[in-house]
Amino acid sequence: MDFSLSEEHKLLRQTISRFVKKNIIPLAEEIDAGEEIPSHLLQDIAKQGYFGIRYPEAYGGAGSDMISYIIMVEEMAYGSMSVAAAVSVHTSAGTMPIYRFGSEEQKQKYLVPAIKGEKIGCFALTEPNAGSDVAAIQTTARKVRDGYLLNGSKTFITNALRANYAIVAAKTDFAKGRKGISLFIVDKETPGFQVLRKLSKMSIRGSDTGELIFEECFVPSGALLGEEGKGFDYLKESLVDGRIMTAANCLGVCRAAFDAGLTYARQREQFGQQIGKFQAVNFKLADMAVDLEAARLLVYYSAWLSDVNKERAKEASIAKLFASEAANRIATKAVEIHGGYGIMMEYPVQRLYRDARFLTIGEGTSDIQRLVIGNLLVF
Ligand SMILES: Cc1cc2nc3c(=O)[nH]c(=O)nc-3n(C[C@H](O)[C@H](O)[C@H](O)COP(=O)(O)OP(=O)(O)OC[C@H]3O[C@@H](n4cnc5c(N)ncnc54)[C@H](O)[C@@H]3O)c2cc1C
């Protein structure tokens, strides 16, 4: 058994970490307060080739493995969870279904420019009345001559405002329930497709989240992704590695909050000594270190399972559940270690505390992960 990263992976981490320290960390507070990621930052990230880490060279990617991708996502989240959310959605749900299930024409039209950063993607599944219960989506795609007419609304969509296209889940056959779900690629400028509004959040504020509306929105037959009625199966297949990716986001936040707590505990003095030397504070740091190390092992183990193509649905959910809850525990303790400064807007630790709140919700809530793990254990 070998727990060490390869020289290539170590070098990748050093390079991305340098990029994050120089280009993302100095902007993290501004991105949070202004609720916006500057476009040039995403372009800079694209120029580094980070949008294409997982995709083959034939499409402009780096052809690297899941561990490399996880390293990139973790480092981005260490710098800013808002930036990591935008990058994660674009490089996974916003492009992966096209790579895995799309036609060559769709790959050339969307994936190739998405890897270059010329197009940004979003993934529209959640609806006002269908969150965890994916099969309950009400958006319909009615077959007409040469295409489909989309009607319905989507909410909580990451990159909604910035995206040039959306991968939209809609029912082509309502009577078939989940077997009637299909995926479509819809260009932003398509008549009948509208971004209704941007939602303001307390967590990952810089990542744009919006509502989408489809009203008699015509898309040609060529907009169908893969086969009609296979959307739910495609989602299930994509969700597993998506959870590993989200767990890596959580790990980045765990590390950032741990570092903030440890640094402050070493600097701050009360009663004539560093507060980190008081056993109460010291034990908090110890618990934070335990959570961080356990999260790291679970995340990298599930990423490794992905690279060796082993069954990993349970491990992905375990990693996501543990790492997201660990991020909340670590961030809470880091705020407590900061005393009153912990809730001052000028200290980044409050942002980490708020950003951690999103992590137990996105890509399946904690209880949905428990449901998945429990079902895989019993059935
Ligand atoms: C910032 C942000 C960004 C997002 N980005 C996207 C995106 O890009 N694309 C997209 O499609 N979606 C996105 N989502 C939606 C996200 O995936 C959903 O919020 C999530 O799946 C939960 O759905 P819900 O919010 O409707 O909660 P609900 O499903 O209504 O859940 C509410 C509560 O009930 C619990 N619950 C529900 N069902 C069960 C059950 N069977 N057993 C036990 N407990 C249950 C949940 O755990 C939760 O605690 C985003 C959400 C947020 C907050």
Automatic annotation (TrEMBL):
Cofactors required: FAD
GO biological process, one term: branched-chain amino acid catabolic process
Signal peptide: none
Domain of life, per lineage: Bacteria
Cross-referenced InterPro entries: Acyl-CoA_DH_CS, Acyl-CoA_Oxase/DH_mid-dom, Acyl-CoA_Oxase/DH_mid-dom_sf, AcylCo_DH-like_C, AcylCo_DH/oxidase_C, AcylCoA_DH/ox_N, AcylCoA_DH/ox_N_sf, AcylCoA_DH/oxidase_NM_dom_sf
GO molecular function: acyl-CoA dehydrogenase activity; flavin adenine dinucleotide binding
Domain Acyl-CoA dehydrogenase/oxidase N-terminal: 6-118
Annotated ranges, domain Acyl-CoA dehydrogenase/oxidase C-terminal: 229-374
Entry keyword set: Branched-chain amino acid catabolism, FAD, Flavoprotein, Oxidoreductase
Domain Acyl-CoA oxidase/dehydrogenase middle: 122-217
Family indicated by similarity: Belongs to the acyl-CoA dehydrogenase family.
Full protein name: Acyl-CoA dehydrogenase
